[in-house]
Amino acid sequence: MTAGRLIVWRHGRTEWNLQDKIQGQADIPLDSVGLSQARSAAARLAALAPTRLFASDLQRAVATAGELAALTGLKIEYDEALREIDVDDWAGLTSAELAAINPEAAARIRSGEPQRRGTNGETVEEVAARFSGALKRISAEGTSEDTIVIATHGLAGRVGICLFLGIPQPNWPAFGGLANCNWVSLLNGRQGYRIEEWNAGSLPEPVMSDDPQK
């Protein structure tokens, strides 16, 4: 059995988000706006009657998940595999600072070429494999009646979902980044999971269409 719906939910805003600093696995808290975002988004997600709640163990994801836990009574289940990409010694740099310090690496990232983040950090491919593996484990623990919410991070969530769905890597950039406290809804059907909503901030609505995907 697999879970009926997976909601992959990005954390609320941090001060480093506002300052365009690379966070990676640096344990940066939500700012006051991020807390408000998490509280508002949690109220909407609670309406989906989630049955389990997972989170990265970094505090910005923990605090985001905590708002939903407070409304639903769900216990937060922590998983290190849901962390953001490891950027090692790039953490705290702005995009402009990285471009000045290491223009070759910054150019490869912009062009989509393989590039390890930081001196000893992860590649996009490595974080995608890590996150996709977590989605496979989590989804396999559910049933068709389950809606599982996963509070996590933007880059890891985006590329991990793409790999989980079997989307070829050259197509990953077509799936835009997630705004703070927005989410991706994956609905399980006859042919496996499909994207129900991407970068959503409102509840899914029924699809009126001649295209039978259920």
UniProtKB/TrEMBL annotation:
<dbReference type="GO" id="GO:0005737">
    <property type="term" value="C:cytoplasm"/>
</dbReference>
<dbReference type="Pfam" id="PF00300">
    <property type="entry name" value="His_Phos_1"/>
</dbReference>
<feature type="binding site">
    <location>
        <position position="60"/>
    </location>
    <ligand>
        <name>substrate</name>
    </ligand>
</feature>
<dbReference type="InterPro" id="IPR013078">
    <property type="entry name" value="His_Pase_superF_clade-1"/>
</dbReference>
<protein>
    <submittedName>
        <fullName>Phosphoglycerate mutase</fullName>
    </submittedName>
</protein>
<dbReference type="InterPro" id="IPR029033">
    <property type="entry name" value="His_PPase_superfam"/>
</dbReference>
<feature type="binding site">
    <location>
        <begin position="10"/>
        <end position="17"/>
    </location>
    <ligand>
        <name>substrate</name>
    </ligand>
</feature>
<dbReference type="InterPro" id="IPR050275">
    <property type="entry name" value="PGM_Phosphatase"/>
</dbReference>
<dbReference type="GO" id="GO:0016791">
    <property type="term" value="F:phosphatase activity"/>
</dbReference>
